Amino acid sequence: MIPITSPHLQIIPKTYNNAERFQFLANISLSRIYNLRKSVTPNDIKTQIYHGNNLFYTQLTISSGNTAYRPYVILDTGSDVTWVQCEGCNPCFDVEGGNFAYKKSISFRRVGVQDPLCPPDHVYIDGSCAISIIYDVAPPHATATGLLGREDFSFKNSRTNNVEVYQGLAFMCTTKSQGFDFGDRNRIAGIFGIGWSDISLFYQLNAQTKGRFSYCLPPLIQLVSTECNMYFGDDAVISGDATRQVQSISMIASNGHYYLSLSGISVNGVRLQIDTAVFQYDAHDDRKGFLIDTGAPNSILPRSAYDPLKAAIIKYLRDSYGWLPRPPGQKKDLCYSVYPGYEQLSYPIVVLHFINPDESGEVDMVLTKTQLFADISEVGLCFMVSPVDDPGPSLLGSFQQSNMAFLYDVPNRRLSFVPQNCAN
């Protein structure tokens, strides 16, 4: 896994100041919400991950005859479609090194409309099955439309270090891309969706992945290129010790997303008055539910949950230190002026309560200040959770996932986690 703010990629425009960079990331989180509403719906495999500002990307190897196409793609647990931009696209964004030359690949073949992988609400391109995905908020009205095709993908075997080829994996070859801005020196060519559905690479490689993967994300404040790995199958394990207990909660894999069983939120031991129905998964209403998503830097909560949480944080910092929030602005909803010595002060502890899948009671995920606040130089100390209109949906973003190891076990419908220093 690699930093999206890494100089290696220069995804965020160099002209952006610190506040604009954080707003860029918040907009990505908000766009995920609208993508949820409008999108068409390995044992020894590992992929190296790079990070920056808690949005992560990786590099895939797509076989194409005597040469291989090796695009950088956003790593995304919040979607199931893997796509890269293809040669001849119109319109499209610039990709350093060029787009995938699928017409020259001897192993590429189109998916027909009668293929079981072709979704019911597909579109057509030259008579072949195609998919269109819409992102409504940021970038404005971004859309990706392309052929559903099959191609050979190569992954390195983590045990033997040999490269192994997996043939005929389905992905989207994008021929129309509008509204995407991946920076001045763009090396990002698409999305690596590892949601669970027939069309995801994760599912297609089920014989190798066994429906399991794990990762540990370094915190946003470390802007250096800290490399880490995502592991699949038998290699996907996490562990604790005497002071760090591995905990497990229920997880529902549906429509390419991973929904969690959030039952409440507390601040410093006080349970917030929130109607938890807004967090409950509803197969008929994708605006509800609480999901986990590495493709969203910030967490998102509906107003009915966000407002009580915001009020509790304001009260704690006012009663403890006399701090008053700065007026809300376009950049962030809740920010404070940075006071000398603020790093040494105590901050409110936010606890996410989840339904215990095995017995009575709840499972708690504790979020501390490094998972809740960021020092944005032009704005102040800001709360890294964003509101959205009710009923949602709501999600746990990668900023709040930092310094925790996660294990997804789809067949057993479990998400396990444990606090960990992910930089190590």
UniProtKB/TrEMBL annotation:
The keyword Glycoprotein applies. One of its GO terms (biological process) is proteolysis. Residues 56-418 form the Peptidase A1 domain. GO terms for molecular function: aspartic-type endopeptidase activity. The keyword Hydrolase applies. One of its GO terms (cellular component) is extracellular region. It holds the Pfam family TAXi_N. CDD domains: pepsin_A_like_plant. InterPro entries: Aspartic_peptidase_AS, Pepsin-like_plant, PEPTIDASE_A1, Peptidase_aspartic_dom_sf, Plant_Aspart_Prot_A1, TAXi_C, TAXi_N. PANTHER family: ASPARTIC PROTEINASE CDR1-LIKE, OS07G0603500 PROTEIN-RELATED. This is Peptidase A1 domain-containing protein.
